[in-house]
Design brief:
The chain is mostly beta strands. The protein has a domain of 128 residues: TonB-dependent receptor, plug domain (Ferric Hydroxamate Uptake Protein, Chain A, domain 1, Beta Complex). It is 4% helix and 65% strand. It contains 3 helices and 37 strands. The strands form 4 sheets. It has a 22-stranded antiparallel barrel. It has a 5-stranded mixed β-sheet with strand order 1-2-4-5-3, with no helix packed on it. β29 and β30 form a beta hairpin. The chain starts with a helix and ends with a strand.
Length: 680
């Protein structure tokens, strides 16, 4: 009987129409699992990436607190109570066979932390019991012919109202890149130095994680999760230096970075006053030990050098309580409070090395300090449909924090911010949708920006700044989208942001360059995305997608007094992908690139030129419904990346640079073979 039922389900899966439909007046669009069968996905991550017009938002794991670390994906209407496991990692652990459907709707349908997000994906899992999982193995080849294997295994077991998930993975990231540097005098362009460089990079990392989920009803849920991960980054650089008219050197650079992370968390939810009250707890610890050494050598003998050691410990504890009610006099409401303690203890030791090996410590302005933040945030959101086609979302957050710096620098400050959000969502019909939102946002500070440290590979020092404060902005965004050619989607976004106390780079009294605050700045935003099937144009199984983004930033430079972009901003970004699915076989190619980005430092302009276009390609074969074999190639165009550093003396108030350094690096063409197998 069980075999017959399974066979009947498989027939129904094939026969069901692969279409999307609007599920309710809130604007939620539903994609049944059959819609994704043409792509033969191995896990939930591959399903989410195939949702038309949707871009998975990557959130930095260093973001403090729980609410601000929300991405744009939830599972069964709930956000996983984990931060170290990013959402793409969580999704990759869920077998595709356990996904019943995908819902796409405005952010406020899924909680206060998602308010203002134009699209949030809700992944609905099946209630099917038993064991299922995914095993993945990859073999990478670098340009010198070396092969490197890696793999992961994840399992999911459902028993009654409980779901158990366990995962282990090893990434054997190893790369070699070659290139050269030139150092020239300006304005003559005379060559001063030529350097031939080869970087051997090994970045092995591994993780093990597990979770238990319990769901008896909508408001009777519980979860516990734990994770351990480590990373062991190793770089060895050979550097043949040929000064014009000088003595040739064979310099060396070695970097050894060790990173360990532990996280435990969980939540529990119970019914209360027609809704549900949830308590979330999370504790994380990250230990880091870095050591790097740069040596100047002549015929193998050290003539000069530097060494740096960094030891840091980062701790976070978060407690969040919230109450949710989906229908309160026509409103969907959520309110709560979050408290967090974050602490960074960091000590940096920088030494100069003499020929005889003697080490002399170099004192930096803030190289031994503890940064502590106590933060509380109250929040509330409410949304309702004003008509069958119009929805309004409101949110209000109030943040309070106490920040202290102790050690080489002493600083204390209390900060308070009111952060309102308003969003209107209009669906006039015929596949059209329009959104308009305005919100006040406050950026987070990187605790590492308070600490001084050297960059040995760049021969410069980053000063720490204990007086740094977060920038704050008013953001306005308008979005128009249209469904085309069945399940295709075209979307255009226009926005404007006004920012005060822009976080950028400023001079320090000690003569260093450090993170700091400038004056008022602005950003102009124009983005277009498309995801279009071309079957109706005669190409069966074909689909083209892409995005074009322009973000123009402007702030007054503290040296020149003129307007310039924010440091690190890349105005234009583009991506175009083609994919064709033909039964058991699929293939695709992608092109991506972006504009150069410049960091405006005290005495230099540091500009990065990515190797454009970055071309990827793949060919995929599915010998069975459970197994996929994929041959992929990265950097198919073999375009190198370039970096240019213009130097000014004594700083950028001098209008003309006196020297330029150009760096060229290439990893060449990178092929790899991946085998994925689903079981259960």
């Amino acid at each position: 009987m069980r075999v017959a039922l399974a066979a009947h389900a498989a027939v129904a899966l094939v026969a069901a129409p692969a279409s999307a439909q609007t599920a309710d007046a809130s604007g939620r669009i539903v994609y049944e699992a059959t819609f994704f069968q043409r792509f033969q996905p191995a896990n939930a991550l591959e399903i989410v990436r195939r949702v038309p017009g949707f871009t998975l938002e990557q959130v930095e794991v260093d973001v403090r607190g729980f609410g601000q670390a929300a991405g744009n994906v939830v599972i069964n209407g709930q956000r996983p109570s984990s931060k170290s496991d990013t959402i793409d990692v969580v999704l990759a652990r869920i077998p595709a066979s356990r996904v019943a459907r995908v819902e796409v709707g405005p952010g406020t349908l899924f909680g206060a932390e998602y308010s203002g997000k134009a699209q949030v994906v809700n992944l609905i899992l099946t209630g099917e019991g038993g064991l299922a999982g995914t095993a993945t193995g990859t073999l990478r080849r670098q340009y010198d012919g070396k092969l490197f294997p890696e793999g992961s295994v994840s399992t999911l077991l459902r028993r009654g109202d409980s779901t158990f998930n366990a995962s282990i993975g090893v990434n054997n990231n190893q790369t070699s890149e070659e290139g050269y540097d030139t150092l020239r005098a300006l304005p003559s362009g005379e060559l001063l130095e030529y350097r031939r460089k080869i970087n051997s990079i090994a970045d092995p990392n591994a993780f093990v994680s597990g979770s238990w989920d319990y769901k008896a009803s909508q408001f009777e849920t519980a979860r516990f999760n734990a994770r351990y991960a480590f990373d062991r980054f190793r770089l060895s650089q050979t550097n043949d230096v040929l000064p014009v008219g000088g003595i040739a050197r064979d310099d060396r650079l070695n970097q050894r970075f060790n990173f360990d992370e532990w996280e435990v968390g969980g939540d529990i939810q119970r019914p209360l006053l027609g809704g549900g009250v949830k308590l979330i707890g999370l504790a994380t610890r990250r230990d880091r030990q870095d050591r790097e050494r740069a040596l100047l050598r002549v015929r193998g003998n050290v003539i000069d050098g530097d060494e740096q050691q960094v030891r840091s410990q980062r701790d976070e504890a978060v407690l969040r309580a919230l109450w949710t009610r989906p229908d309160l006099n026509g409103w969907s409401v959520e309110t709560g409070i979050e408290g967090a303690l974050n602490r960074l203890r960091s000590k940096v030791d920088l030494f100069s090395l003499a020929e005889d090996g003697t080490r002399t410590r170099i004192d930096l302005p803030v190289d031994d300090a503890t940064v502590t933040e106590y933060r509380a945030e109250a929040f509330a959101s409410a949304s309702r449909s004003l008509s069958p086609k119009l929805r309004m979302d409101l949110a209000l957050n109030y943040e309070m924090s106490r920040l202290t710096v102790e050690g080489d620098a002493e600083a204390k400050r209390s900060l308070r911010f009111l952060k309102p959000k308003v969003n209107l969502d209009w669906r006039p019909g015929n596949g059209w949708r329009a959104q308009a939102s305005i919100a006040r946002t406050v950026a987070q500070l990187r605790f590492e920006d308070f600490i001084s440290a050297a960059e040995l590979t760049n021969e410069r020092v980053n000063g720490g700044n204990a007086e740094l404060v977060p920038q704050r902005s008013w953001e306005a965004l308008a979005t128009i989208e249209k469904q085309v050619l069945g399940d295709g989607l075209v979307k255009v976004e226009l926005g404007y942001t006004q920012t005060s106390l822009v976080q950028d780079r400023v001079p320090t009294p000690e003569g260093f360059d450090a993170p700091g605050n400038l004056g008022d700045g602005s950003s102009k935003i124009a983005r277009a995305t498309f995801d279009v099937p071309v079957s109706r144009l005669g190409i069966k199984g074909g689909r083209i997608s892409g995005r074009l983004s322009y973000v123009g930033t402007s702030v007054r430079d503290p040296y020149t007094g003129r307007q310039r972009p924010f440091s690190g901003a890349s105005p234009f970004v583009y991506e175009v992908n083609w994919r064709q699915d033909m039964g058991d076989f699929a293939w695709g190619v992608g092109f991506s690139g972006d504009d150069p980005s410049t960091y405006y430092r005290r005495n230099e302009l540091d500009t990065f030129y990515p190797g454009n276009p970055y071309i990827t390609a793949f060919a995929e074969y599915r010998p069975t419904r459970s197994t996929t074999v994929t041959l992929s190639v990265d950097n198919l165009g073999d375009f190198p990346a370039r970096r240019s550093r213009l130097f000014f003396d004594p700083d950028r108030r001098t209008p003309s640079p006196f020297r330029v350094e150009d760096r060229v690096r290439s990893q060449h063409i990178l092929p790899y073979l991946t085998i994925k197998h689903n079981f259960g």
